[in-house]
Write a sequence for this structure.
């Protein structure tokens, strides 16, 4: 550029041009003495760094720099700095946000998404028009996911999940210790009751799977928690897991009377399965009439399975193995244990191992055994302990009997003579003996 001749008055445009040249070729300066500084503070301004980036100094300290790649570095000597502060002075809206990317494929993170003065924090995806994460003013986190993948075959294939946690112990170095994919601690402080009889409830996990009754669903499976645990594939028994547990529940009742139920306490349970109609509030919330009814499930608890290769699809196939030694085990049996929280050889202790009640047809139904290997006995009931049987059969007029014994008419073992005469006693004894013989419990002499 050619500087104007100085022996004549300068126009404003010419003066600005001269100042522009002076600014363009300002001295490089240093952090302590910037090349472009301010008259009232020579240690505050801009300077050219050794790597060609532009730095900004405040009172001789580097606070900001930007390099040729557009990378920005902010520095602070404060112990707990907030290096970027966004403030909205609108008066009504308090929305402040940072946008990553441009156009319809950008993400935005900010505060007060509704621009109404709220104190929420949000993450917005402009490509889907969805807010996948939002913290409310009272710090509740909402994760919103709207899957868009539609399968055309094999509906069991996965389409994704709104939350995936990858926990990889031992990946960078051999692991020693206990690693948990997710831990939730619900630590309960002071709690007050209400006079209406309702109680505050606390838990570390609550899940609900509920199809919207206002929409149409066809051919769906519904799950609460769906837990898959895989053991190590190995034929070497020494390489098996120290413990393989599909689900472990550890309950430690610590209050006296936890084993009792009364008008104000429901008792303590290791696990409870309840099949019941929905509450009216849930129905109303989802637009369902309160007159709708629920229906029975196939089973309150179902334990099924088999073992073998991938070609085994049923427990009756050739080559199918047992799913477990015990389909259901209560107590430690002779080998003890049964949980990682007690010793491997510890015996359990129960008042009653199994209680069956409130049934309309059969309290215990044993049926449909698999073909037994040659020479193997199959017992519907195998009991090594003394057995006491009693009860009343309602509306039963047909003959009764044990397996392998001809049925007999319903015995009248409880009928004895009306006096203490010897003849009445002999008659009663004969009747009892006869009844027991007909039931197969006594053999005829």
């Amino acid at each position: 550029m050619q500087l104007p001749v100085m022996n004549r008055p300068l126009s404003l445009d010419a003066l600005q041009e001269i100042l522009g040249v002076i600014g363009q070729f300002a001295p490089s300066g240093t952090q302590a003495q910037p090349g472009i500084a301010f008259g009232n503070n020579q240690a505050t301004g801009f300077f050219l760094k050794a790597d060609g980036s532009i730095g900004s100094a405040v009172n001789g300290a580097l606070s900001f720099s930007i390099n040729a790649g557009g990378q920005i570095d902010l520095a602070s000597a404060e112990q707990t700095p907030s290096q970027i502060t966004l403030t909205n002075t609108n008066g009504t809206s308090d929305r402040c946000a940072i946008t990553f990317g441009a156009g319809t494929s950008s993400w935005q993170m900010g505060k007060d998404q509704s621009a109404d003065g709220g104190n929420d924090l949000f993450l917005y995806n402009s490509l889907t028009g969805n807010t996948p994460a939002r913290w409310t003013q009272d710090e509740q986190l909402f994760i919103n996911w709207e899957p868009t993948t539609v399968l055309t075959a094999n509906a069991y294939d996965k389409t994704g999940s709104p939350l995936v946690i990858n926990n990889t112990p031992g990946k960078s170095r051999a692991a020693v210790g206990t690693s948990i994919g997710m831990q939730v601690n619900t630590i309960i402080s002071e709690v007050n009751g209400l006079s209406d009889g309702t109680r505050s409830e606390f838990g570390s996990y609550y899940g609900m799977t509920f199809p919207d009754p206002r929409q149409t669903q066809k051919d769906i499976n519904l799950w609460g928690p769906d837990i898959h645990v895989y053991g190590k594939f190995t034929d070497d028994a020494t390489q098996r897991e120290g413990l393989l547990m599909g689900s472990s529940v550890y309950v430690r009742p610590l209050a006296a009377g936890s084993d009792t139920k009364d008008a104000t306490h429901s008792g303590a349970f290791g696990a409870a399965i309840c099949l019941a109609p929905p509450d009216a509030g849930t129905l109303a919330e989802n637009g369902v009439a309160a007159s709708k009814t629920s229906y029975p499930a196939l089973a309150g608890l179902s334990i099924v399975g088999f073992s073998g290769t991938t070609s085994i699809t049923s427990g009756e196939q050739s080559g199918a193995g047992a799913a477990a030694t015990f389909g259901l085990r209560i107590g430690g049996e002779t080998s003890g244990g049964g949980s990682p929280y007690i010793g491997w050889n510890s015996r359990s202790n129960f008042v009653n191992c199994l209680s069956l009640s409130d049934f309309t047809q059969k309290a215990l139904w044993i049926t449909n055994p698999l073909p037994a290997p040659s020479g193997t006995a199959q017992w519907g009931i195998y009991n090594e302990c003394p057995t006491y049987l009693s009860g009343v059969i309602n509306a039963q007029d047909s003959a009764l009997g044990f397996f392998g014994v001809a049925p007999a008419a319903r015995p009248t073992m409880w009928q004895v003579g009306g006096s203490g005469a010897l003849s009445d006693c002999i008659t009663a004894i004969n009747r009892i003996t006869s009844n027991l013989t007909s039931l197969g419990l006594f053999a005829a002499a």
